[in-house]
Amino acid sequence: MSLAELPIAAPSESSVAVFRNRPFLLLWLSQLATQVGGNMVLYGLTVLVRDLTSSNSAVSLLILTFLVPAVLFSALAGVYVDRFDRRKVLVVTNLVRAALFIALALLDANIVAVFVLNMAVSIATTFFAPAELSMIPIVVPAGQLTAANGIFTLTLNAAFAIGFTVLGPLVVSIANPTVLVVFVAALYLVAGAFCWTLPPAPPGTMPHGGALHEAEEAAGSFVEQFREGITYVRDHPIVRWALLYLGVAASIVGILGVLGPAFAEDVLGLRTKDFVVIVLPLGIGVVVGVVAVNVIQSLVSRRRLIESGMLVLGASLAAITIAGPIAQFVRDVNDRVPGPDLSAYLSVLTIVVVIAFVAGIGYAFTAIPAQTELQSEIPQAVRGRVFGILNMLVSVASLLPIILVGPISDAYGTMPVVLVAAGVIFLVGIVSFVARGHAALADDVPEAVEAEVDAPSEPIEAPAPETELPASAATAGPSPEEP
User: Fold this and answer.
1) 139 CB-contact burial (10 Å; exposed 0-12 / middle 13-18 / buried 19+)
2) What is the Cα–Cα distance from 478 to 483, expressed in whole angstroms?
3) What is the mean predicted confidence (pLDDT) over 450-475?
4) Which of 18, 162, 360, 483 lies deepest, with the highest CB count within 10 Å?
């Protein structure tokens, strides 16, 4: 599940009441187990593939086995999930993924088997994700949905830090990637047991009305669904920009995942599995950034947070490419300035750790407000369908850089690729700042709220009821252009 799949909502005082709801607690524990486990597997397989092949191109291919199923199936999976009991979908997909992980552990020396089995896991995940999201309003009262979504979002972001930057490296360092995969298979079995205890959620319990029939018709053609998503994005500038931000952020995560092991080996002189020294401070920075965004979001507009985050992220990645000269400069300054000798603490590794931490903060400042913009702008009546389309588009946007980065870095080295990526991020931040103009807190008011406040004298078309999903909903009307 990607970061774009969940709405952003900060957990509130009602979070405690939500956790007293036993079905929600079990659903959340299932999410925690699968999200942390999935990120652990991503780390372990990255190390495994790099050790087996010594190729950045192979690592790129591994990342693609995570992403391609989302591109091919995410726009359709939710439609077919609606035909079955969501609880059974959650149980079956968890059991299937656990079995595939066990098979992967048995065949871990076969690189082709690793790719094929991991893609099968990713296909199962595309059906698990919409079923999980559909269960939230079934097990949570309407008044607690905001708190429940906030908890799921916070867990989604924290799972990367816990799984990819802490538990994954820890298990690989103590044992090996194979043991890690077996451990994650056990986590998915536990998650399946949690889901089995949830209340039944057969198709008839969800109030779709004519929506299911129309969604199935829309899903009948992949090209039609893709065109509809493009039309919606084209007619809604705020959504278009948010999608661009999320696409760039997703690309950077993929690029760093591909190049991280090589960077640890070639620049820092570490073993492949020791590139935790890069991802751990990065993950800590993301968590710190998430907390900071929640603190200052009432003081700074989301757009300025996003643009600042992109500039910080781009500058940080550029600084990593010259970490050696930076370390030498800092040592020279320390030698000339009276005071304690800090040369032992001013190595290239130390500089990289600091830069990675700052980059994590920049990533959080980019991704979290961008998700919030999407959640605020997309009408509730079509939110699930449009989020599925947007998730597909974000995945498509992240594919090309990941496809190219492995072979290019094998041919020209890691540092030039990182520098180009840094330049692209920085440029997007600058273009956004210039092209979108003034940003104020008032810009963060959702379009629906603005319509109520402005109370236009001319009659406007009433929004479709939540239980209906008209075929034209995705193109019902553009958001106003920003000044």
Assistant:
1) buried
2) 15
3) 37
4) 360
| Cβ atoms of 4 and 390 closer than 8 Å | yes
Q: Phi/psi zone of residue 202: left (φ > 0), alpha (ψ -120 to 50 degrees), beta? A: beta
For residue 430 the two structure tokens come to 């600058």
Q: Where are the chain's structural domains?
A: 3-437+449-475
Amino acid at 392: M
Quick one: tokens of 15? 């979070």
Q: What Å distances lie between residue 92 and 35, 185, 193, 198, 269, CA to CA?
A: 17, 14, 10, 13, 44
3-state secondary structure of 439: coil
Reply yes or no on whether the pLDDT at 160 is more than 70: yes
Gap between the terminal Cα atoms of the chain: 34
Give the whole-number percent of the chain exceeding pLDDT 90. Answer: 16
Q: Which of 384, 448, 323 is nearest to 135 (CA)?
A: 384
CA 332 to chain centre: 40
Which residue's entry shows tokens 């009276």? Answer: 338
Q: What are the helix (H) ranges across 175-301?
A: 177-196, 211-219, 222-235, 237-266, 276-296
pTM of the model: 0.64
Mean pLDDT of 118-135: 86
Question: Does the pLDDT at position 154 exceed 70?
Answer: yes
DSSP per-residue letters across 132-164: HHHHHHHHS-GGGHHHHHHHHHHHHHHHIIIII
Is the Cβ–Cβ distance between 250 and 399 less than 8 Å? Answer: no
d(CA 352, CA 98): 36
Assigned CATH class of 3-437+449-475:
mainly alpha
pLDDT digits (tens, 9 = 90+) for 270-284: 666 667 777 778 878
CB burial of 339-377 (b: ≥16 within 10 Å; e: otherwise) equals eeeeeeebbbbbbbbbbbbbbbbbbbbbbbbbbbbbbbb
Cβ-proximal residues to 333 (8 Å cutoff; 6+ apart), any chain: none
Q: Which of 303, 244, 242 has its CA nearest to residue 424?
A: 244
Is the pLDDT reported for residue 237 higher than 70? Answer: yes
Q: Which of 317, 87, 348, 269 is nearest to 192 (CA)?
A: 87
Q: What would the two tokens of residue 296 be?
A: 């200052």
Q: Per residue in 283-328, pLDDT tens?
A: 788 888 888 888 887 788 888 899 999 999 999 988 888 877 877 7
